[in-house]
Amino acid sequence: MWGDKRYHSLDWELRKTFGSKGIKLSLDGGFTCPNRDGTLGTKGCIFCGQKGAGDFAAQRSLSIQAQIAQQKKLLSAKWPQGKFIAYFQNFTNTYASPNHLHQLYGQALAARDMVGLAVATRPDCLPQGVLDLLECYAAKTYLWVELGLQTIKPSSAAFIRRGFDLQCLRRAVEELHARKIRVVVHLIFGLPGESNEDQLASVRFVAGLGVWGVKFHMLHIQKDTDLYSYYRETGFPLLTRDAYIDLVCDALELLPPAVVIHRLTGDGNKMLLHEPKWSLHKLRVLSGIDQELRLRGSVQGAKALNA
Ligand code: SF4
Q1: For residues 245 and 11, what is the distance between their CA atoms, to the nearest angstrom?
Q2: Looking at ligand 1, which residue's alpha carbon is closest to its atom 4?
Q3: pLDDT per residue over 25-48, tens digit each?
Q4: Out of 43-57, 77-91, 115-129, 205-219, least confident range
Q5: Residue 56: its pLDDT value, please?
Q6: Residue among 203, 286, 273 at smallest CA distance from 238
Q7: Three-class SS state of 33
Q8: What pLDDT does 109 receive?
């Protein structure tokens, strides 16, 4: 159904849409986050590092054009026919005035071969003016908006200091859908105190939202975070690679086939990652997921309600 994969990968979706490899260029628009600047809190989410949620984004001291040029240079050799998506990844990429956002997004989209725009943000940072701006971009480019839900368990949401509730997330998804904007939701597996059932409940919730895409992350203990101190104090159990692979396969079975899988495992920053070390071997995790789905004779959506 999806090339050689048993799940609906973003790579497959972008190749189908653009006829060639879609390459995301991770950009840093110089944003902060209400969870860090004192509006909601000063410490940020417990797992969030000094560079925000996007450790692989380009240098924020460079202009958007320079960031794009730098990344294209690195990636074009590998995929000369590639099409590019400007991915505003670091911190909260709608946390500014619509005018300022318009300038940044516009600069990024003006680059050659830029066919789309991806914006990572929080559901409580989508005021009317920003939604209207995003609606305009949705009409002229291939746009998606990413929202970091991570979990639906209230105690976990408090533990990670997420700072918004499910109602807020639901409202944001509805507002974006009403404007025909693709929505991607992030989930984290391996949060302390979450059972398999808790984690799959979050997946069922996301499946029920009717969103376009999902991104799965394994909880990373990064050295520049409060989570690192908490882990050193408590030594809470982490998922093994096999347990993570099993969980991701269970999750994929629950998601409708139409949902685009943006990520199955994160790229930890080698210098900062404390645990789990196995997550650095991304290809082993991905091939483990392929193998497990094959062994099960299963595919994405095999257990989805509307599959
Ligand atoms: S919302 Fe995102 S950028 Fe803000 S503190 Fe949490 S993870 Fe970091």
Answers
A1: 20
A2: 33
A3: 999 999 999 999 999 999 999 999
A4: 43-57
A5: 58
A6: 273
A7: coil
A8: 98
Length of the chain, in residues: 307
Q: What is the tens place of the pLDDT at every residue in 264-286?
A: 997 778 899 999 999 999 999 99
CA 282 – ligand 1 centroid, Å:
23
Residue identified by tokens 């895409």 is: 213
CA distance 252 to 189: 13
CA dihedral angle for residue 123, residue 125, residue 131, residue 136, rounded to 10 degrees: -110
Structure tokens belonging to residue 95: 């946390």
Q: What is the distance in A from the centroid of ligand 1 to the CA of 122?
A: 8
Task: Please give the biggest Cα pair distance in the chain.
Answer: 52
Per DSSP, the three-state class of 48 is coil
**DSSP single-letter state for residue 52:** B
The pair of three-digit structure tokens given for residue 169, joined into one six-digit string: 């997330």
pLDDT of residue 57: 61
Give the distance (Å) from ligand 1 centre to CA of residue 34.
Answer: 8
Distance 46 CA to ligand 1 centre (A): 9
Q: Which residue has the tokens 């318009």?
A: 102
Contact 238, 190 (CB under 8 A): yes
Do 26 and 85 form a contact (C-beta atoms < 8 A)?
A: no
What residue owns the CA closest to ligand 1's atom 3?
Answer: 91
pTM of the entire predicted model: 0.96
Q: Which residues contact 237 (CB under 8 A, 6 or more apart)?
A: 192
- Ligand 1, residue 122: give the atom nearest the CA: 1
User: CATH assignment of 10-296?
Assistant: 3.20.20.70
- In this model, does residue 80 exceed pLDDT 90? no
